[in-house]
Amino acid sequence: MAYNLLKGKRGIISGALNEESIAWKVALKAHEEGAEIVLTNAPLAMRMGEINKLAETCNAQIIPADATSVEDIENLFSKSTEILGGKIDFVLHSIGMSPNIRKGKSYGDLNYDWFQKTLDISALSFHKMMAVAEKQDAMNEWGSIVALSYIAAQRVFPDYTDMSQAKAVLESIARNYGYRFAKLKNVRVNTISQSPTMTTAGSGVGGFDAFFEYANKMSPLGNASAEDCANYCIMMFSDLTRKVTMQNLMHDGGFSSTGITEDIVEMISPKS
Protein backbone atom coordinates (compact mmCIF):
# COMPACT_ATOMS: atom_id res chain seq x y z
CA MET A 1 0.00 0.00 0.00
CA ALA A 2 1.32 3.44 -0.96
CA TYR A 3 0.79 6.54 1.20
CA ASN A 4 2.16 9.26 -1.14
CA LEU A 5 4.86 9.99 1.45
CA LEU A 6 7.22 11.29 -1.22
CA LYS A 7 4.74 12.92 -3.58
CA GLY A 8 6.39 15.82 -5.39
CA LYS A 9 9.87 14.99 -4.06
CA ARG A 10 13.03 14.45 -6.10
CA GLY A 11 15.80 12.05 -5.16
CA ILE A 12 19.09 10.41 -6.08
CA ILE A 13 19.53 6.72 -5.31
CA SER A 14 22.97 5.13 -5.58
CA GLY A 15 24.05 1.53 -5.45
CA ALA A 16 21.23 -0.42 -7.12
CA LEU A 17 22.90 -3.45 -8.71
CA ASN A 18 20.18 -6.08 -8.99
CA GLU A 19 16.87 -7.10 -7.45
CA GLU A 20 18.61 -8.23 -4.25
CA SER A 21 20.06 -4.75 -3.58
CA ILE A 22 18.61 -2.64 -0.81
CA ALA A 23 18.97 0.38 -3.11
CA TRP A 24 16.87 -1.43 -5.72
CA LYS A 25 14.08 -1.90 -3.18
CA VAL A 26 14.38 1.75 -2.07
CA ALA A 27 14.07 2.94 -5.67
CA LEU A 28 10.91 0.89 -6.23
CA LYS A 29 9.38 2.10 -2.98
CA ALA A 30 10.30 5.75 -3.63
CA HIS A 31 8.67 5.54 -7.06
CA GLU A 32 5.61 3.92 -5.52
CA GLU A 33 5.39 6.72 -2.94
CA GLY A 34 5.31 9.38 -5.65
CA ALA A 35 8.93 10.51 -5.96
CA GLU A 36 10.85 11.25 -9.13
CA ILE A 37 14.31 9.75 -8.97
CA VAL A 38 17.65 9.50 -10.70
CA LEU A 39 19.66 6.29 -10.39
CA THR A 40 23.44 6.16 -10.21
CA ASN A 41 26.17 3.59 -9.86
CA ALA A 42 29.79 3.11 -10.87
CA PRO A 43 30.18 2.29 -14.59
CA LEU A 44 31.67 -1.14 -13.80
CA ALA A 45 28.85 -2.01 -11.40
CA MET A 46 26.32 -0.93 -14.02
CA ARG A 47 27.81 -3.35 -16.54
CA MET A 48 27.59 -6.16 -13.98
CA GLY A 49 24.04 -5.36 -12.87
CA GLU A 50 20.54 -4.91 -14.20
CA ILE A 51 19.97 -1.23 -13.51
CA ASN A 52 18.38 -0.54 -16.90
CA LYS A 53 15.43 -2.73 -15.95
CA LEU A 54 14.98 -0.79 -12.72
CA ALA A 55 15.18 2.53 -14.55
CA GLU A 56 12.42 1.44 -16.93
CA THR A 57 10.19 0.33 -14.05
CA CYS A 58 10.72 3.59 -12.14
CA ASN A 59 10.68 5.85 -15.20
CA ALA A 60 14.09 7.07 -14.06
CA GLN A 61 17.21 8.18 -15.86
CA ILE A 62 20.63 6.74 -15.03
CA ILE A 63 23.73 8.87 -14.48
CA PRO A 64 26.93 6.81 -14.21
CA ALA A 65 29.28 8.10 -11.51
CA ASP A 66 32.39 6.87 -9.78
CA ALA A 67 31.66 7.81 -6.17
CA THR A 68 35.36 8.44 -5.50
CA SER A 69 35.52 11.10 -8.23
CA VAL A 70 34.47 14.62 -7.25
CA GLU A 71 34.13 15.47 -10.93
CA ASP A 72 31.71 12.58 -11.48
CA ILE A 73 29.70 13.58 -8.41
CA GLU A 74 29.53 17.18 -9.60
CA ASN A 75 28.13 15.93 -12.88
CA LEU A 76 25.69 13.67 -11.01
CA PHE A 77 24.16 16.51 -8.97
CA SER A 78 24.09 19.10 -11.75
CA LYS A 79 22.49 16.71 -14.22
CA SER A 80 20.05 15.37 -11.61
CA THR A 81 18.70 18.81 -10.81
CA GLU A 82 18.38 19.46 -14.53
CA ILE A 83 16.60 16.15 -15.26
CA LEU A 84 14.30 16.34 -12.23
CA GLY A 85 13.53 20.03 -12.73
CA GLY A 86 14.64 21.31 -9.36
CA LYS A 87 16.66 20.77 -6.22
CA ILE A 88 17.04 17.39 -4.54
CA ASP A 89 14.90 16.32 -1.57
CA PHE A 90 16.59 13.04 -0.68
CA VAL A 91 19.76 11.06 -1.36
CA LEU A 92 20.54 7.41 -0.62
CA HIS A 93 24.22 6.49 -0.25
CA SER A 94 24.31 2.71 -0.64
CA ILE A 95 27.96 2.32 -1.62
CA GLY A 96 30.49 -0.07 -0.12
CA MET A 97 33.32 -2.25 -1.38
CA SER A 98 36.49 -3.72 0.11
CA PRO A 99 39.18 -5.08 -2.21
CA ASN A 100 40.72 -6.78 0.84
CA ILE A 101 37.52 -8.72 1.51
CA ARG A 102 37.12 -9.56 -2.16
CA LYS A 103 40.67 -10.91 -2.26
CA GLY A 104 40.30 -12.84 1.01
CA LYS A 105 42.86 -10.85 2.98
CA SER A 106 42.86 -11.44 6.74
CA TYR A 107 42.81 -8.45 9.10
CA GLY A 108 46.48 -8.91 10.01
CA ASP A 109 47.55 -9.08 6.38
CA LEU A 110 45.69 -6.16 4.78
CA ASN A 111 46.93 -4.50 1.64
CA TYR A 112 47.09 -0.86 2.75
CA ASP A 113 46.57 0.59 -0.69
CA TRP A 114 43.40 -1.48 -0.89
CA PHE A 115 42.49 -0.37 2.65
CA GLN A 116 42.63 3.25 1.50
CA LYS A 117 40.46 2.31 -1.47
CA THR A 118 37.94 0.72 0.89
CA LEU A 119 37.75 3.96 2.89
CA ASP A 120 37.51 6.11 -0.23
CA ILE A 121 34.72 4.08 -1.83
CA SER A 122 32.74 3.19 1.27
CA ALA A 123 33.08 6.31 3.45
CA LEU A 124 34.83 9.32 1.92
CA SER A 125 32.43 9.12 -1.03
CA PHE A 126 29.67 10.08 1.42
CA HIS A 127 31.53 13.26 2.38
CA LYS A 128 32.23 14.03 -1.28
CA MET A 129 28.56 13.70 -2.18
CA MET A 130 27.47 16.09 0.54
CA ALA A 131 30.28 18.57 -0.10
CA VAL A 132 29.29 18.74 -3.78
CA ALA A 133 25.61 19.05 -2.90
CA GLU A 134 26.46 21.93 -0.56
CA LYS A 135 28.68 23.75 -3.05
CA GLN A 136 26.08 23.44 -5.82
CA ASP A 137 23.26 24.35 -3.42
CA ALA A 138 21.57 21.25 -4.81
CA MET A 139 19.57 20.22 -1.72
CA ASN A 140 16.13 21.54 -0.88
CA GLU A 141 15.36 22.90 2.57
CA TRP A 142 14.44 20.02 4.92
CA GLY A 143 16.00 17.47 2.60
CA SER A 144 17.15 14.08 3.87
CA ILE A 145 20.40 12.21 3.21
CA VAL A 146 20.74 8.58 4.32
CA ALA A 147 23.70 6.18 4.17
CA LEU A 148 23.57 2.47 4.92
CA SER A 149 25.84 1.26 7.70
CA TYR A 150 26.39 -1.85 9.81
CA ILE A 151 26.96 -2.65 13.48
CA ALA A 152 30.55 -3.71 12.73
CA ALA A 153 31.29 0.01 13.08
CA GLN A 154 30.92 -0.53 16.86
CA ARG A 155 31.58 -4.24 17.37
CA VAL A 156 34.10 -6.79 16.13
CA PHE A 157 33.06 -9.12 13.32
CA PRO A 158 36.36 -10.72 12.22
CA ASP A 159 35.49 -11.42 8.59
CA TYR A 160 34.33 -7.82 8.04
CA THR A 161 37.95 -6.60 8.33
CA ASP A 162 38.59 -3.09 6.95
CA MET A 163 34.92 -2.47 6.14
CA SER A 164 34.47 -2.09 9.92
CA GLN A 165 36.67 1.01 9.84
CA ALA A 166 34.91 2.28 6.72
CA LYS A 167 31.51 2.08 8.42
CA ALA A 168 32.86 3.83 11.53
CA VAL A 169 34.15 6.68 9.36
CA LEU A 170 30.85 6.77 7.47
CA GLU A 171 28.90 7.23 10.71
CA SER A 172 31.28 9.93 11.92
CA ILE A 173 30.88 11.82 8.64
CA ALA A 174 27.10 11.63 9.04
CA ARG A 175 27.31 13.25 12.48
CA ASN A 176 29.71 16.00 11.42
CA TYR A 177 28.10 16.83 8.09
CA GLY A 178 24.69 16.41 9.68
CA TYR A 179 25.50 19.30 12.00
CA ARG A 180 26.82 21.42 9.15
CA PHE A 181 23.91 20.76 6.80
CA ALA A 182 21.34 21.30 9.54
CA LYS A 183 22.75 24.75 10.29
CA LEU A 184 23.01 25.63 6.60
CA LYS A 185 19.71 24.38 5.17
CA ASN A 186 17.86 22.24 7.73
CA VAL A 187 19.01 19.20 5.76
CA ARG A 188 19.18 16.09 7.92
CA VAL A 189 21.83 13.39 7.62
CA ASN A 190 21.55 9.92 9.14
CA THR A 191 22.89 6.40 8.82
CA ILE A 192 20.83 3.24 9.06
CA SER A 193 22.61 0.27 10.63
CA GLN A 194 20.95 -2.63 8.86
CA SER A 195 20.75 -6.33 9.71
CA PRO A 196 22.93 -8.67 7.67
CA THR A 197 21.02 -8.86 4.41
CA MET A 198 21.09 -11.38 1.58
CA THR A 199 22.51 -9.10 -1.09
CA THR A 200 25.32 -9.57 -3.61
CA ALA A 201 27.59 -7.34 -1.50
CA GLY A 202 26.68 -8.95 1.82
CA SER A 203 27.16 -12.51 0.67
CA GLY A 204 30.71 -11.63 -0.41
CA VAL A 205 31.80 -11.55 3.25
CA GLY A 206 33.33 -14.83 4.48
CA GLY A 207 31.06 -17.00 6.65
CA PHE A 208 28.06 -14.85 5.77
CA ASP A 209 25.49 -17.67 5.82
CA ALA A 210 26.42 -18.72 9.35
CA PHE A 211 26.46 -15.15 10.58
CA PHE A 212 23.10 -14.38 8.95
CA GLU A 213 21.58 -17.33 10.83
CA TYR A 214 23.25 -16.31 14.11
CA ALA A 215 21.96 -12.73 13.80
CA ASN A 216 18.49 -14.03 13.05
CA LYS A 217 18.54 -16.11 16.24
CA MET A 218 19.89 -13.13 18.23
CA SER A 219 17.20 -10.73 16.99
CA PRO A 220 13.84 -10.97 18.81
CA LEU A 221 12.07 -9.77 15.67
CA GLY A 222 14.40 -11.61 13.30
CA ASN A 223 16.68 -9.99 10.73
CA ALA A 224 15.31 -6.95 8.92
CA SER A 225 14.95 -7.68 5.21
CA ALA A 226 15.93 -5.47 2.28
CA GLU A 227 12.24 -4.61 1.88
CA ASP A 228 12.04 -3.62 5.55
CA CYS A 229 15.07 -1.39 5.11
CA ALA A 230 13.52 0.24 2.06
CA ASN A 231 10.44 1.13 4.10
CA TYR A 232 12.66 2.65 6.81
CA CYS A 233 14.54 4.71 4.21
CA ILE A 234 11.29 6.05 2.79
CA MET A 235 10.21 7.13 6.26
CA MET A 236 13.55 8.91 6.70
CA PHE A 237 13.13 10.67 3.35
CA SER A 238 9.62 11.79 4.21
CA ASP A 239 8.48 14.89 6.12
CA LEU A 240 7.54 12.65 9.07
CA THR A 241 11.15 12.66 10.31
CA ARG A 242 12.08 16.32 9.91
CA LYS A 243 13.77 16.59 13.32
CA VAL A 244 15.83 13.39 13.11
CA THR A 245 19.45 14.05 12.21
CA MET A 246 23.04 13.02 13.04
CA GLN A 247 21.78 9.61 14.17
CA ASN A 248 22.92 6.06 13.54
CA LEU A 249 19.58 4.30 13.51
CA MET A 250 19.61 0.60 14.38
CA HIS A 251 17.41 -1.42 12.05
CA ASP A 252 18.22 -4.95 13.11
CA GLY A 253 15.21 -6.62 14.74
CA GLY A 254 16.63 -5.89 18.21
CA PHE A 255 20.05 -7.51 17.65
CA SER A 256 21.99 -4.51 18.96
CA SER A 257 20.16 -4.51 22.31
CA THR A 258 20.06 -8.25 22.95
CA GLY A 259 22.58 -10.08 25.13
CA ILE A 260 21.43 -13.62 24.42
CA THR A 261 18.23 -15.34 23.32
CA GLU A 262 16.57 -18.66 24.03
CA ASP A 263 17.32 -19.69 20.45
CA ILE A 264 21.05 -19.24 21.00
CA VAL A 265 20.95 -21.03 24.38
CA GLU A 266 19.11 -23.94 22.79
CA MET A 267 21.57 -24.04 19.89
CA ILE A 268 24.70 -24.28 22.11
CA SER A 269 23.32 -26.32 25.03
CA PRO A 270 24.36 -29.99 25.14
CA LYS A 271 21.65 -32.30 23.92
CA SER A 272 20.50 -34.71 26.61
From TrEMBL:
Record lineage: Bacteria, Pseudomonadati, Bacteroidota, Cytophagia, Cytophagales
SUPFAM superfamilies reported in the protein's UniProt record: NAD(P)-binding Rossmann-fold domains
UniProt xrefs under CDD domains: ENR_SDR (cd05372)
Signal peptide: none
Family membership: Belongs to the short-chain dehydrogenases/reductases (SDR) family. FabI subfamily.
Keywords: Fatty acid biosynthesis, Fatty acid metabolism, Lipid biosynthesis, Lipid metabolism, NAD, Oxidoreductase
Metabolic or biological pathway: Lipid metabolism; fatty acid biosynthesis
Reaction(s) catalysed (UniProt annotation): a 2,3-saturated acyl-[ACP] + NAD(+) = a (2E)-enoyl-[ACP] + NADH + H(+)
InterPro entries to which the protein is assigned, alphabetical: Enoyl-ACP_Rdtase_NADH, NAD(P)-bd_dom_sf, SDR_fam
Enzyme Commission number(s): 1.3.1.9
Protein name, UniProt field: Enoyl-[acyl-carrier-protein] reductase [NADH]
